[in-house]
Write a structure and sequence with these properties.
CATH superfamily: Gcn5-related N-acetyltransferase (GNAT)
CATH topology: Aminopeptidase
Radius of gyration: 17 Å
Number of helices: 6
Number of strands: 7
Distance between the termini: 52 Å
């Protein structure tokens, strides 16, 4: 099957995701940046997954919202990555690396969502694991933070499984679904993942 960007399905350029994964673990998914050509598939999946995402993470469900998503993640310091099933290219979920700050912080904020059609199969666990490798090895970040509403048990289980630590609780942290929502703050650093040391990013001060 040929997608509308002229690339054979399943063969889109992936981000550092060889079949075995960098750590030698089997990987059933790949990562790739979202593009405007993903509009139809993404919107269909998002509309079918509203019940799964509400009230935790609203995703674009209209053409206008999708265009705004593409425009946002076309900016420096922002990445929107699709988690795709290896071999078919089907989109299983999305992971955003938001608000990357360089200098002494070298940090970003991560948000993610599975799609209902493939939820419960472990694809997002594998996909977020690959995002950690990308963030710490390719982007050379030091830290990623996830803000999670206390009632979102599935998301909390996912970050625990991947080694994030709970760092605190912030009342009224993010405006979601018409109100300021409380969030737990979870974070992970490159050292916590056992990632091989990478040269520091050029923007990090020498001392």
């Amino acid at each position: 099957m040929i997608r509308n960007n002229g690339v054979e399905e399943g063969e889109q350029a992936a981000i550092g995701t060889p079949p075995s994964g960098r750590r030698g673990n089997p990987s059933r998914v790949t990562l790739r940046p979202i593009t405007g050509h993903d509009r139809d598939e993404f919107l269909e999946l998002a509309r079918a997954s509203v019940g799964l995402h509400h009230p935790w993470m609203p995703l674009p469900t209209t053409d206008e919202e999708f265009r705004a998503l593409i425009a946002r993640y076309d900016q420096p310091g922002e990445e929107c990555l699709l988690v795709c099933v290896r071999g078919t290219g089907a989109i299983a979920g999305v992971v955003n690396i938001n608000s990357i700050i360089r200098g002494r912080l070298q940090s970003g904020s991560v948000a993610y969502a599975a799609f209902a059609s493939t939820s419960g199969r472990g694809y997002m666990s594998e996909g977020l694991g690959l995002v950690l490798e990308h963030a710490f090895e390719d982007l050379r970040l030091h830290r990623l933070e996830a803000q999670i509403q206390p009632g979102n048990e599935a998301s909390l289980r996912l970050v625990r499984r991947l080694g994030f630590r709970r760092e605190g609780y912030s009342p009224g942290l993010l405006f979601i679904d018409g109100a300021w929502r409380d969030h737990e703050r979870w974070a992970i650093t490159a050292e916590m993942t056992g990632a091989p040391p990478s040269p520091p990013h050029p923007t990090r001060p020498a001392r």
